[in-house]
Task: structure prediction
Amino acid sequence: MAYTAAIIPITTVLNLIPYQGVVIGLVWVTYLLVTASVKAHGIKPQSAWIGFWIICAIFVFASVSAEMAARKLSSEMQAWEAEMHERTGDLKRLEEMTPEEAGQAIKDFFRGMQDQDD
Result:
């Protein structure tokens, strides 16, 4: 675990470049797992490399896919926020409202929803 943790500052800096820190961290952990398996369990190096590279590839794919999905969701949420801000016009943000104003805004929102259903 200490050898794994030693690279955390480096991968943290590399996370500024999308996907790179995750991949380097996983490759480093794979190397350490192979080395530990060969030394501690007497597994053939070739078998350990094949097994752990398959696992590493799965984790790299999952991590990169998750990061891509998070980036896409973030941009969609920003677009949605801009659209909602445009639709609400001059309405105050919820954080800026008094409790009475927020209650009235929610009441008006639900009244508008009910009117659309009718």
Notes: DSSP finds five helices and no strands in the chain. Residues 14 and 20 are 6 Å apart (CA to CA). The chain has a mean pLDDT of 84. Residues 45-88 form the longest helix (44 residues).
